[in-house]
Each structure stands twice: as C-alpha cells, then as structure tokens.
Amino acid sequence: MNDDVAIRVEHVSKKYCKSLKRSMLYGIQDIGRNMLGCSSYPEQLRKDEFWAIDDVSFEVKKGEALGIIGRNGSGKTTLLKMLNGIFWPDKGKITVKGRVGALIQVGAGFHPLLTGRENIYINAAILGMTKEKVDAQFDAIVEFADIGDFLDAPVKHYSSGMFVRLGFAVAIFCKPEILLIDEVLAVGDVGFKIKSLNKIKDVMQQCAVVFVSHQMQLVAAICTKTLVLERGQVKLYSNTPAEGIEYYAELFESGGMVIHGEHVIEIINAELLDSNKHIIRDARVEYMQQVFIKVNFNFLQERNITVKINIQNSEQNNVMTFFEENPTIIQYSKHETDVILDIGAIDLRQGKYSVMLNVLNKENNKRLCKIDRLLVFHVSYFKSAWADIIKPMNVTAYIPETIAGRFQTRG
C-alpha cells in the first residue's frame, strides 16, 4: 500500500436482511458454518436479503477529502461504518492506515450519565490518546466545543448541537490520520459550521477525510473528489467535486414521484403553468416568472382535504413553503379533480428544484400524506447568487435634514 494512501476499498459489498427474524436465523447459520469450517456463501443472497453496498472501490490519500453523496438509502452511512470498523464487509477488502476519528452519529460514543469532561477523556482514549496528550489539548477542545458551564454536567442533558460540537472537538484535536464525518455538521449552527470547515481544512494536510453530506455547498467547500452512490453502487467516482455534484443533481432530476403516508389521492398528472395558464415546456422557469401548478388526481378515500406546497432544492432541503391562511377545502369526489395552485413569482436562484405536495386533513390540519417530487423544474437566472431566494430591492440615498442644515451656504 502506497505510503500516501490512507484508505483503500477494493470491491467491497455488504448485504442486509429486511426481516429481523430471518437475519437472526441467518446469523446463527453463518456462525455454525464458520465453526465447522464451512463456507457461509457470502456471494449469494438468501430470502429477504439485499446488497446495501455492491462492489465499491476507491482510495483516499493524505491531504485528500472524498465526498460521498447520494440519495437517502443509497448506502453512504453503511460504507462509512465499514470504514470505521463497525461493520465487516461480506465481500472485498478495506485497508485503513492510521488512527481514525469518526463522527457518524450524534452522541455516538458518549456515555449519557458521565460529564462532558469525563467523556472527553474516554473518547480520546478510544482514539488512542494518552492522558498526558489529552491534558495538553484539553483547553483547546473545551474552547472549540463552546459548551460553557455544561462541561461538568451529564451529557444526557446536552442538546444535539452540543453533542456535535463536543464530539467534533475531540475527534479533530486528537489529531486523527483519518477523519470520517457523516452529516453531523447539519446539526450545528452557522458559526460552528464555519469554524469546523476552517478546522477541517487545517488538518487535511496531515490526514485523509471522508465526508458524507446532502449539503452540496459543504461538499464543494471541503472535498477534493467525489463518489456518487445509488442503491449501493458507484455511479461516478470523480477527481473533481463539481462533476460529482452535477451528476448527483441529474440523479435528483431523474427520480420518480414518491408518496409517504396514507394513500388518500392518486396523482394522474401534474403540470407547471405560466401566467396565461399555458403549460411551461421542459419545466424551465425564468427568474421572477409567474407560475401556477395544476394537479389532476383521483380520491382513494372519502375525505375532504386541504393542500400545502413545499419547494425543495437538489439537496432535498425545503427552500419555500406555500399555504393559505384560510385553506380552501377540496371536497371529496368520485370523479377526477383538478386543483390549480398559484405560487406567484419564482424568486429562486438558478438550479433544479422539486415540488412536494402535502395533503392535509381539513378537520385538524394534520398531514395525511406527502408526495415528493410531484414536479421537477429548472430555474434560469443570468446572475450567480449564494442564497436560495433572491429578492430585488430599491435603495434611496439622502442626507438627513439635521445634517444637511449644517452645510447650507451663508449669505
């Protein structure tokens, strides 16, 4: 293994079982076969089994940061847990060279009844740090974590943000040679994110980073290359983060409509309409264009409903919500129903977006179901912007009268 290569993954696969009872049975069978020296048939799938990770290969060198991206359920966290030694692969080989610092789950590795101070020493010891080395870094860890007066309080009283700050501080100041991060930075506030990004960039020269996130801004800021996963398989392995992010956006666009919750309605068709109620071809919307959403559906249950709309970006984050203060009640009908939703002018930055339709019970306003990816559309805008929503403004410059009076010409 090359001295610069910190992580090498070679044709790795991992299978799971959908049934708890069968997984326990298969586990007993596999243990019995191993004790008898028989093969456990790792390459074969038994009933209810599936490949969570399927033939994945890559390597990460010191000074590199690999961004692993993909939709929910694509296998990102499973892969990270195998890199951390929590799971063993069923096929293939993983070689890890160096001390690993991992942030895979909020609160992982912390004992809830112990204080923050005690958990710092325990976590550092797990990472291979001696007490003397922890003592030398202790003040820096506490200052970075910024948990104030809660240092000597049991961590069961910590918020999720405090868990993340403390866990990240321990992992980063114990000088890991490999740093694994799984979406936990999404929990922290903006100030902590900026501080964490700067710290990751500082330690990258001495370690390899594997970063899992749905936030493409963070991937672009941290990573030097990307791996795109879909259903456990590598769809793209690129040495440039921009290429991976663009490919991920294409996966986002190609996905179909998904219904979560009760099947109250059946969507027949959904369309974007312009201000004249004409169909917007290719779902390409100009900045500040007036847009309507037309939904054609059948009722599957005899209910009266109301609806609400969310707009999500390619990272599946909500960027806009549309609702009525006095919701229009959509009456149950045995026939097809058309609903036209006026969402006004689209003031989003350039990019791909999807529409989520929320179906609510008109009696108590509770959500019955949500329909992800009802529509996918692209916003065109000639200017670049760092925010999701772009608002025009008017600027008026003037000199206050109290000041202007001082500059009047004396006769």
From TrEMBL:
Residues 26-256 form the ABC transporter domain. SMART domains: AAA. Signal peptide: none annotated. It comes from the Bacteria. One of its GO terms (cellular component) is membrane. PROSITE patterns: ABC_TRANSPORTER_1 (PS00211), ABC_TRANSPORTER_2 (PS50893). SUPFAM superfamilies: P-loop containing nucleoside triphosphate hydrolases (SSF52540). Keywords: ATP-binding, Nucleotide-binding, Transport. Pfam families: ABC_tran, Wzt_C. InterPro entries: AAA+_ATPase (IPR003593), ABC_transporter-like_ATP-bd (IPR003439), ABC_transporter-like_CS (IPR017871), ABC_transpr_TagH-like (IPR015860), Bact_Polysacc_Export_ATP-bd (IPR050683), P-loop_NTPase (IPR027417), Wzt_C (IPR029439). One of its GO terms (molecular function) is ATP binding. Belongs to the ABC transporter superfamily. This is ATP-binding cassette domain-containing protein.
